[in-house]
Amino acid sequence: MTPLSARLIAVVAATAVGGDCLRAPAGALTRDATRSAVVRMEQGSLMRAAATAAVVFTLSAATPLPSQADGDTEKFKFPPIDRTKKNRCVFLSSAIGQANAARDSLYDLRECTMDGKAAEGFDISGALLAQGSFQKTNFKEAQLSKVYGPDANFDGADFTDGVVDRAFFKGSSFKGALFVNTVLTSTSFEDANLEDTDFTGAYLGQFDSRRLCKNPNLKGTNPKTQQDTRESAGCA
């Protein structure tokens, strides 16, 4: 008998003796009846726990969060954009997010126009950047871990010395962008426009580098640094 069963037997016995539902003198509840009651209670608890776990698992599997992204996570389900929220399109540095992209609320910059804005040194990990415009935005030394930015425009943006880790940029444009000395681990640039982008000194894993070199838009010369795009990315 488990310690939990022993405690439950004591509770059931005490309830049976003193409760109104079983009007029997002390000792009238047999050991077999007590054990049967305990088994039913434990089975009911297990069934409720299993049902709860199933619901939690289903919700988490169907609706992954930015903090669960790995750079290849494509299917997310987010609430509609709250267009009534004042000052929604503002860069805010996270005080708790850092590399895990954890935030106390959804950081939604979807469809925002942030051209030429400054986020230098900011931690905007976990931000939703989908379909936003960030042309010539200053992301120097910024932390962009697990950001979700498909179909966004980052033309001419500067990510120098930043950390762009496990980010998702499918279909986005980075024409003329700077990733000089930038950490780009497990970041997806599938179908992205990387023409004239400079990757000089960027940290790329071997697998990340192979995927990047297969991008047909990895070509040209950066107009600011005059670096050849494919050469800067280490692609032959």
Structural key phrases:
0% strand, 236 residues, disordered N terminus
User: Which word captures the global form?
Assistant: globular
Query: How many helix segments?
Result: 4
Number of strands: 0
- Beginning-to-end CA distance, first to last residue: 68 Å
Give the radius of gyration: 28 Å
Structural account:
With about 240 residues, the protein is mostly helical. It is built from four helices and no strands. It has helices at about 5-20, 30-60, 205-215, 230. It is globular. The chain starts with a helix and ends with a helix. Residues about 1-30 and about 50-70 have low confidence and may be disordered.
Outline:
This protein is mainly α.
Please write out the topology.
Blueprint: H1 3-18, H2 31-62, H3 206-213, H4 229-232
Helix pairs in contact: 1-2
